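Recap slide: TrmH family RNA methyltransferase, sequence and predicted structure.
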Amino acid sequence: MTAARLRTRTELRGQRRPRAHGCWNHLIAAPLWPKHGVNLGTLLRTCDATGACLAVPRLPWVPEALAIGNTLRHRQCVHWVQGRVDTWLDRQRAGGSAVLGVELTDESIRLADLPAARRRTIMVLGNEGYGIPPEGLERLDVAVEIPMVGSGASLNVAVAGSLVLYKLAGLS
């Protein structure tokens, strides 16, 4: 058996599939009820890895959390949700976007059964305390659940969002 050889950064970049990335592309992660800044930083990094944008509410502490979380130190695709979250979600749906929530509901589909996004998709995330509130659940086209065998009821928002982003981006 031969030892594994690590690929260089140049090799890795050359082997990645090319992607056009512009603001408001087809995949948007939307942690609309955030509680912990560290989760936003992790999601920001995953958005870069999957070619997604991040949409967040303009709360006083969020810009600093994103600045700390921007470990790549280059401009990220971040958009601010102004005003009421439910109104923003209504506008996204009216504009033709699919709205998918990561939540445990009676109608949730399993992550393994989730197809890659074929049209502009907003992935909505709640928070660890109460998930997606009723005004968000009412606006979902579909909910996806991440099956678990451990004793916890759910994963943290950053981990759950990252798993679903990779699946929606067609990278898993």
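The first helix runs from residue 9 to 15.
DSSP finds six helices and seven strands in the chain.
(End of recap.)
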